[in-house]
Amino acid sequence: xxxxxxxxxxxxxxxxxxxxxxxxxxxxxxxxxxxxxxxxxxxxxxxxxxxxxxxxxxxxxxxxxxxxxxxxxxxxxxxxxxxxxxxxxxxxxxxxxxxxxxxxxxxxxxxxxxxxxxxxxxxxxxxxxxxxxxxxxxxxxxxxxxxxxxxxxxxxxxxxxxxxxxxxxxxxxxxxxxxxxxxxxxxxxxxxxxxxxxxxxxxxxxxxxxxxxxxxxxxxxxxxxxxxxxxxxxxxxxxxxxxxxxxxxxxxx
Length: 253
Ligand SMILES: NC(=O)c1ccc[n+]([C@@H]2O[C@H](COP(=O)([O-])OP(=O)(O)OC[C@H]3O[C@@H](n4cnc5c(N)ncnc54)[C@H](OP(=O)(O)O)[C@@H]3O)[C@@H](O)[C@H]2O)c1
Description:
There is one protein chain. The chain is α/β, with parallel strands linked by helices. It has a domain at 2-152: 3-Layer(aba) Sandwich (Rossmann fold), CATH 3.40.50.720. It is 35% helix and 19% strand. It has helices at 11-22, 34-48, 62-65, 77-91, 120-127, 142-146, 163-174, 190-207; strands at 2-6, 26-31, 57-61, 70-73, 95-98, 103-106, 109-112, 132-136, 154-160, 179-183. The strands form two sheets. Strands 3-2-1-4-5-8-9-10 form an eight-stranded mixed beta sheet, sandwiched between helices. It has a two-stranded antiparallel ribbon with strand order 6-7. The two termini are 21 Å apart. 52% of the residues are buried. Bound molecules: NADP nicotinamide-adenine-dinucleotide phosphate. NADP nicotinamide-adenine-dinucleotide phosphate (NAP) binds next to helix 1 and helix 4.
């Protein structure tokens, strides 16, 4: 699948880019400066040491990263609205994955702040009425994600008002070794999901750790077993919501 990453030059964008490229996707890593993006891709290819297929990772301008049907918005949340306003035409009809957290640093803690409409994802959805915004990936530790030499496991909460888009993102995440997407309802859940990141960041700073989320006690359907992976936690308008099937989807390697 082609995946664009707007603001892909930061730690989170780089981490997602290498994991998705290693999983066989074609990633367009975007920047406000295409040359900077290509330079960073060259570094990532080199540190991946042959794990990435030729052509799987390209540095481009954000306008080009906005062209695929699946686009990750990985700018800081403060820059998200201006960024998507410029790219709204290209993003029309696309699935836009919002990874943003609205956080401020207070000494050794991160605190959540409430963005307009309660979450970064809801703010982006309001700015992009013609796109299907999905919130996912807020709890991923970028540094661990970017290091392909180490095994990495994380549950990824995925919420959206459009159940098909939510499922598409779960299906994409399922292709990345170690990631287990968990469908978490409608976009209203993004407020709590994003705010919880402040707790996780504070724990990680206090314990010098790179911990992430792992939900205990859930046996999820294995991706590809014929059941609707990742789409059963309700919310949204698509046919998969509220089917009564087990929540979430994905695999654990
Ligand atoms: N870092 C993490 O561990 C982590 C984990 C989960 C989620 N997140 C979320 O993921 C997003 C990216 O995190 P990050 O740490 O990678 O961010 P970052 O390094 O601060 O920013 C990512 C990229 O966005 C571009 N950018 C910076 N300011 C911008 C602005 N005002 N308008 C448009 N583009 C701008 C820059 O790229 P160019 O200069 O090349 O355009 C920058 O390299 C954030 O929303 C964050 O909350 C981060």
